[in-house]
Every structure is written in structure tokens, then in C-alpha cells.
Request: fold
Amino acid sequence: MLRHVTGRVFHTASAASRRQNSVLASGRGSFGALGQGSYEDVPADKPVPVHFATRDGSSITKISAGWGHSAVLSSDGDVFIHGQFLNFRDIAYSSMFSRVSNMLKKFKPKSKQLRVNTPFKLNGEAMGKCRDVAASAAMTAIIGEDGTLYAFGDNGHEQCGVGSSDSLVWPPEPVRNLVGAPASAVALGLNHGVVLTEHGECYSWGQNNLGQLGIGLAQVPKLNAAKLIPASFFGSESVVKVSSGMLHSAALTESGAVYVWGKHMSAEKDEMTSNYHHQFSPRKLNEIPGRAVDIASSQYSTVVRTAEGKLFLLDRIPEHKRDRKGPKDYVNTAFFMRGRKSAIASLCSLDTVEGNIELMRDGFHAATLVTDTGSLFEVNASLSPRKIEVDVGDGSSLVDAVIGWEHSLFLVR
Reply:
């Protein structure tokens, strides 16, 4: 069964494709994140089409699923949003209530003006033809035509990075203190962000109480503007990809080295609790054999793929939660980890998947893997990637998939 994750993961499809891409959605509909014009749920294995008012000849090329909203990008650089994209409080309350009783899953947030159940085009003349989009917990980041990074949404932890302590950022504003090269990619955690520039530099902003920013400053609880992560932290190499889970981040360098930082990502343990310490600066994963070629993160984990096609998982899931078969095994973990002697940061080998992996994408609940045969797998606390069966329609093939907290988007052609 497909479990639905928070993720800000996306893929650029070929603009030269003769067939137009389309978007399908499934999962929880109570926040409007499915874009169906209603708040009804859709079965996980039978997603339904989402319709966007794109320009003639334009096609959706990038998809991103947040906690209670979705964001997509068209080949013309237009950004479309649907769901509850500004206020996280009601979403968090609803998620907690639904764990107590399935009857409360239909909880409707009071801030109705902050959610929309059909896609609307984001008007931002200053952004021009947008390059990229990422969605998180009621926060969205967009890379504009000139490489300027914009953010909007919930700013209770100053996670939008626009230099403001206001609890809400709307309309989109530029992320502050990004200097030098234009932004090329962005990854969002629960309350933090990491951006990669065209020069291979990394900047981060937002909450840092657990080391989420990787700036090496434990005494700085949060930043409301971007700060450069020193290149020396990455062995003075250029970074080629960034990835974020809920409370940690990862980076892949040009030589194939992987670095991680954030909650329980240290290699050192606390003798009193048996938990690994938080990591406030990037730590190289020397345990990975060979050269890494891709990374993707989920709420508690980062999966690494090597040039030899092997998969490795770094995670901090309690041992008693691993490899269980229930659909709620991983989502519930956060509610039990606090104060327990169960947080680990171990690296383990994963079973391989059928076919060649073409895409690896972040997700708050699980990372997604898409193969050259169009097969879809999710990777989280289980040591075996789980194949997800999704009906994308006759004659259509899966191009990309992202999994929000309780909803999923699929890009098909």
C-alpha cells in the first residue's frame, strides 16, 4: 500500500517529447492538495487527473508535494498551487488527531481562506519564467528565471529566509543573503531550506536547533536569511545535489562523496541515551564503498545510490520500527522517539530493485525511486525498497512521482 509522504521532490521531463505530460493525484483530499475541486479522498492505487490551465502547447514538467499542498511547474515557467499552502498549524493538528481516531481524518481546518482545492496560477512577474519549485510544510520555494530564489508560506520559525520574523510570508519574497551565482536547485525540510548555486555552493536558512543548517554553529537556533555553508566543510569540493528530510539534510559532491548533517546525524553517541548526537556541520559518510551518484531523503532517512548500482540507507529509525508491514510504521515514529533510547544513525545496505534507477526524489515519509521500466519504489525505514503499484492509465508511462505527507502526485506521459 502506498503511504503518503511530505516531499519536495521533482523532475524535469523532456520538453521535446511529442506527448504531453499529465498529472495524477491520490491520497488525502481534506486540504485540497489533490486539486480536484473537492476535499474527498482518492484511493492510493487509483490516482485521478489534475487539470491545470496551462498555455497552449505547454505541459507540466515538475511536480512537488508538500504536507498539505502541491506545487507544479509548466514548460512555460508558470507555477500552479493548490491545497493549504500558507498555514501549517491546522495541518499539524489534523495529522495528530487522525492518529488518535480515523473518524477525525475528515477534520477541516478553520483557516479556509488559506486553502484552495483547484490549481491556481501564481502571478509573479518579477520571477519571470520559473525554473524550479519545491513544497514543504506550508512553505514553497521557487527559483525564478534569473536564478533568484523566492519563498512564501508559514514563517513561524523564520523558515522562509526572507529576513522577516513575521509568522506568514505572502506574496513570494526573495530569500535574503544569496550572493554570487544564481540558484540551481532547492531542497526544503520541515522548517529549513538548502539551496545549491550554479557554482556548486550551498546556502541554508531556517531552524537550526538540531543542526539542520549545517553551518557549524550550535549556538545559533535559527536564521531568517541564507548563510553560506563553507566549502571547506565539503572538502573544498563543488556540490552537485542537495537533499533534505524533516530535520536533516545531505549533499553529494562532484567526486561522489556524501555529507549529512542535522538531527542524530553525528557519528558519536550519547552514552546516557544511546542516541547519536546532532550534527551541526556536514559529516562525510566514509562508510559508503565506491562513488555515490545520487541521493534522496525522507523524513528520517537518506538513501544513497553508488555508481555500481548499490543502494545504502542512513536512517535514525528505532530498531523496533524497522521492517514492519503496517502502513503507519514510519509516520508514527516521530511521536514516540522523543525521550527514548532509540534514535540511531546507522548506514545499511538495501536490496536492489528491478530495472535501472533513473530518478531518486526526496519525500518526508519516503524517498521515491523510478526505474527505466516505469516501476516505482519507495524507500524509508524498511531495508527493502517497496514497489508501489499505481494505475496510470492504458498507454501511459510513469515519468516521476512525489509523495506528500498524505497525498501523492504522479507525472505521466
The two ends are 23 Å apart (CA to CA). Residues 1-18, 93-113, 322-344 have pLDDT under 50 and may be disordered. The CA atoms of residues 88 and 138 lie 5 Å apart.
